[in-house]
Design goal:
heterodimer; A: about 350 residues; mainly alpha; ABC transporter involved in vitamin B12 uptake, BtuC; disordered N terminus; B: about 260 residues; alpha/beta; Rossmann fold; 2 domains; 6-stranded mixed beta sheet; 4-stranded antiparallel beta sheet; 9 helices; globular
Chain lengths: ~350, ~260
């Protein structure tokens, strides 16, 4: 069983990368202006060096190019990045807290980030909700403040107690949500938009937001990935970890701060998107086993694909009306999550 | 060769003083037993010995160097720890768990070297865990799990192995198996074993030197024959005991006497 898993491991990567490519092409071709899968494929290939000679885009309307490259691809890239960021953070939180319920949302970090971003929006002079400016900075401050508050409540003498941490995360999450609600009510005209945004939406994505997100999410994920072996050891308990040469306290602080940053940058442009960080690591663990060196990169790919498909559904299912992507992830997520729970229950009973 | 010394160690959990000036010396190749009534600070002491807990005052030194000054990676090459019970939230295989013992020699994402695999292989041989290698750690029985954690400690290749009640969950067959293994490490591989034990008969049979603790301090230190006497045990544990001789091994037998 285990050796079989090893053998299929490269296959998982190839499959996921292929799936991601097809999901991108599919999503780029789908929408209110229906371009179609084949045309979308041709248009995307025509911009890839070497492959451009294989395809002909003669006779295609030029607005197709504009729609794909200026409107849909940035949104696609943003969805993939956010899906990756949230999934990697979910993996890290579940591993470091040895708790399958841990994810950026449960720990109150997403809510803290959204609160920060909402404050930036209502206090800022700029009208545009999704524009850059102070929003990412405020989101990061919000996430770090939420993380710090959760950490301070849960820590004792520099050590973190897992259960207390989860509970204080939920408490801080509620607090942030309450303040967000007050902001929504207070900001009458924009209430609808903020509300929509707190339920999650990729609507405001542009190449600018992608360029802001990209370095933070990639650098953050790299730091987390480099600690994958340490997270493996941390997941066997603090005492074991320290005896095996892992400075558990310092590692937890590093992971918490890095994951807060990745979460903040992931949610600041698109609001809270629940369940991604919870479901993806669970599902991927069935494929890769518990080793975080495999779990993390595969979860990143799977999370990117998952969120891209969810966003495609969000903008097309009831077009021209958009559904908040958080609603979609929950609709897909909850039944999936329950089936995972049932399966694991059966397993432990057997 | 390394010597672990504990100098006037004080430790508190919040306001509760747990260790009140403990001093000890551990020499290479010896099997030490640490015994004492519940709450006397045995486990807390062990957690101070490998740097999981930091003393309020006093220090633990490895060959004269304060272990708090050592990097955790460096420290873990010298001191391994076998907890009373190991839990893992995830289904790591036995091999994965044992391979974690090589972590002190690794950084980042580099894989296992030939040398690592040799250490893992021989540790699995010594603990008869080869057959378990592909099983999930969570599928194992208590005895199997303890053997795996011992294998992980061996793989760590440290001079000193600390054990916190390694056999208290096991039946007598597995108790003897684990204790034999630990003792043979001290005898044949010149390891220093520091073992917290509840079972006085196992202590009598296996250890070469005993530290008897009470109320956060060492009240007696010596060979089993010197420490395990009726007067001392009755005084510290507050229970009448019968002490006899085990004719098969020559070690002491300690049987608590009912108060009825």
């Amino acid at each position: 069983m285990k050796s079989g898993k090893k053998a299929v491991y490269p296959l998982i990567y190839i499959t996921l990368i292929a799936m991601m490519f097809f999901a991108v092409v599919f999503s780029a071709g789908t929408g209110s202006a229906s371009i179609g899968f084949l045309n979308s494929l041709k248009i995307i290939l025509s911009k890839i060096p070497l492959l451009e000679r294989l395809v002909s885009t003669d006779g295609m309307p030029s607005q197709y190019f504009t729609i794909i490259f200026s409107i849909r691809l940035p949104r696609i890239a943003a969805s993939i990045l956010v899906g990756m960021g949230l999934s990697v953070c979910g993996v890290v939180f579940q591993g470091m807290f040895r708790n399958p319920m841990a994810d950026p949302y449960v720990l109150g970090i997403s809510s803290g980030a959204v609160l920060g971003a909402a404050l930036a929006f209502v206090t800022g002079t700029q009208y545009a909700l999704f524009s850059l400016g102070l929003v990412p900075l405020y989101a990061f401050i919000g996430a770090v403040m939420a993380t710090t508050a959760v950490y301070l409540i849960a820590q004792k003498g520099g050590k973190l107690v897992t259960n207390t941490l989860i509970l204080s995360g939920i408490a801080i999450g509620f607090l942030c949500s309450s303040v967000i609600s007050i902001i929504i009510i207070a900001s009458r005209e924009q209430a609808h938009r903020i509300l929509f945004w707190t339920m999650g939406s990729m609507t405001g994505s542009s190449w600018d937001t992608v360029l802001v997100m990209l370095p933070f999410i990639l650098a953050g994920s790299l730091v987390l990935l480099l600690n994958a072996g340490n997270i493996n050891i941390l997941s066997t308990g603090d005492e074991s970890a320290v005896s095996l040469g892992v400075n558990a306290g310092a590692l937890k602080r590093l992971l918490l701060l890095t994951a807060s940053m990745v979460t903040a940058i992931s949610v600041c442009f698109c609001g809270t998107i629940g369940f991604v960080g919870l479901i993806i690591p669970h599902a991927v663990r069935y494929l890769t086993g518990p080793d975080h060196k495999k779990l993390m990169p595969v979860s990143a790919l799977a999370g990117g694909i998952f969120l891209l498909l969810c966003d495609t559904a969000a903008r097309t299912l009831f077009a021209p009306q958009e559904i908040p992507i958080g609603v979609i992830t929950s609709l897909f997520g909850v039944p999936f999550f329950i089936s995972l729970l049932l399966r694991s229950k059966r397993r432990t009973l057997a | 060769m390394s010597v672990l010394t504990v100098e006037n160690l004080h430790f508190s959990y919040g306001r509760t003083k747990v260790l009140k000036g403990v001093s000890m010396e551990f020499y290479q190749g010896t099997f030490y037993g640490v015994i004492g009534p519940n709450g006397c600070g045995k486990s807390t002491l062990l957690k101070n010995l490998y740097g999981y807990l930091s003393p309020a005052s006093g220090k633990v030194c490895l060959d004269g160097v304060d272990i708090r000054r050592m990097k955790s990676r460096e420290r873990s090459r010298h001191i391994a720890y076998v907890p009373q019970e190991t839990v893992s939230g995830f289904d790591f295989s036995v091999f994965d768990i044992i391979a974690m013992g090589r972590n002190p020699y690794h950084s980042g994402l580099d894989g296992l070297s030939r040398d690592d695999l040799d250490h893992i292989e021989s540790a699995m041989q010594d603990t008869s865990t080869i057959a378990l290698r592909n099983k999930s750690i969570n599928e194992l029985s208590g005895g199997e799990k303890q053997r795996v954690i011992l294998a992980r400690a061996f793989t760590q290749d440290s001079d000193i192995i600390l054990m916190d009640e390694p056999v208290s969950m096991l039946d007598i067959n597995h108790q003897v198996e684990i204790m034999d293994l630990a003792r043979s490490l001290a005898d044949k591989k010149n390891k220093t074993i520091v073992c917290v034990l509840h079972d006085l008969n196992l202590t009598a049979q296996y250890t070469q030197h005993i530290f008897l603790m009470a109320g956060g301090a060492v009240v007696r230190s010596g060979m089993p024959g010197e420490v395990l006497t009726e007067e001392i045990i009755t005084g510290v544990y507050n229970v009448d005991v019968f002490i006899g001789d085990n004719k098969k091994t020559g070690s002491r037998i300690i049987i608590p006497i009912s108060r009825l």
